[in-house]
Amino acid sequence: MLPELSSTDPAPSRALPPVTRAAEPARVEWRVLGAYAAPTLGLASPLFFVQFFFLKYATDVLLMAPAAVALIFGLSRLWDAVTDPVVGVWSDATRSRLGRRRPWMLAGTPVVLVGFVMIWVAPRGLGEVGLGLWVGAALVAFFTGFTAWIVPHMSLGAELSDGHHDRSRIFGTRQVFFMLGMFVAFGLIGYVTNSADQRVAAARAAIIVAVVCAGVLLVPPLVLRERPEYQGRGAERPFRAIADVFRNPHARIVLFVQFIDSLAAGILGVIAPYFAEYVLKRPDLIALLPACFVVSSVASVPVWVMISHRLGKKNTWLLSMVMTGLAFGSQIFVGENDVLLASLILVAAGVSFGAGGVLGPSILADVIDWDELQTGERKEGAYSAGWGFSFKAGAAAIVVFAGAVLQATGFEPNVDQAPPAHMAIRLLNSALPFGVFLLGALVFTRFRFDSAEHARVRAALAERREDRP
What we know:
Elements: H1 30-37, H2 40-60, H3 66-93, H4 102-120, H5 127-159, H6 166-193, H7 198-217, H8 219-223, H9 238-247, H10 249-279, H11 288-311, H12 313-329, H13 339-353, H14 356-375, H15 380-408, H16 419-429, H17 431-444, H18 451-467
Helix pairs in contact: 1-6, 2-3, 2-6, 2-7, 2-10, 3-5, 3-15, 4-5, 4-7, 5-15, 6-7, 6-11, 6-14, 10-14, 10-15, 10-16, 10-17, 11-12, 11-13, 12-13, 12-14, 12-17, 14-15, 14-18, 15-16
């Protein structure tokens, strides 16, 4: 039985005006869009290197027990998710000459990069407990800095434009660079996997990435400017701000769908290296095969943005979820050395997957306008934190689940797997994402905040601003 996620709006404080053909606000300039979106490459590369490879690296290279690694990783991601609302609400309320968002990004940059390097330079000879403590501390530092940067950054994206479709353009461009970060991450995975000494290679790669990304991550806080009219528009009480997010009927649906979709996305990233090595029997393709997914996903983003203009954001995202579930589910048919089949499936999955990272944040930005009509506040940080919390909570849960399943089915590193572990890897990589994506599509059919409703909200907000002295 699905959870009760009513999309019936509470009675607004004033009647919404009829839909008019008001012109879209001016589009964000390309130079601003580039300064906003391109630096996400510098955050996504370390993130996906950790998210997709650390579990396998820890079990196969550091020789840590899968369940122990999964627990440490899952707890650190849970911490990451819990800190999202804190950063989001505090950034909404921040007052400074730099604005509400940029001070947080400046502070988060060194923390995330120091934590990233620590993850991959664990000293030898620490012992089981010492290694666990080092890894745990490094992951907490990494994800704390990540939250301090990404939540304000997503909030800033929602503030750049009021345009219904321009928001899809903004988050579409952001998604392109974010997915390119995944491509870089798989390149790093391939480099480390094919090195004679993986510990040395991982440390070397981490240091180089951190140095390069330091300059990249500083671009938005140093170059962009924030909207001065949003200063001081955050909620006065933090807990009420968080409650407003979950009282918003449209936001509840979007965030729930984001959570269950993140379960599928998380498991695919975590299990993909195991699938390449122990099912496909091609460990040399651990980095190359995902390139099919990433390249096709990036290439599909402009297409999905155009489709959303015709079908609407909701119908387009629904279509992509169904297609993605079917594509990933078909991986159950991939066997040893089925490289061509695996490649074609990943291309299809990448094309299908490209819509969610674009339209989800774009829809959430529209929902924030609905909140402003109800409360008179601008809470991009609180809503971005809700989005991040949903994604990270799902990712944390699925890493714990995957590690527990591997442990329970008798996984042994660097050897051919026994039938139970072999089948577990196959099902985790196909049946689970298939079911989760279809569940997400089913829940999202209840979403009702379309372009017409958003136009009414925008008109009401414009009328309210004109009434102010």
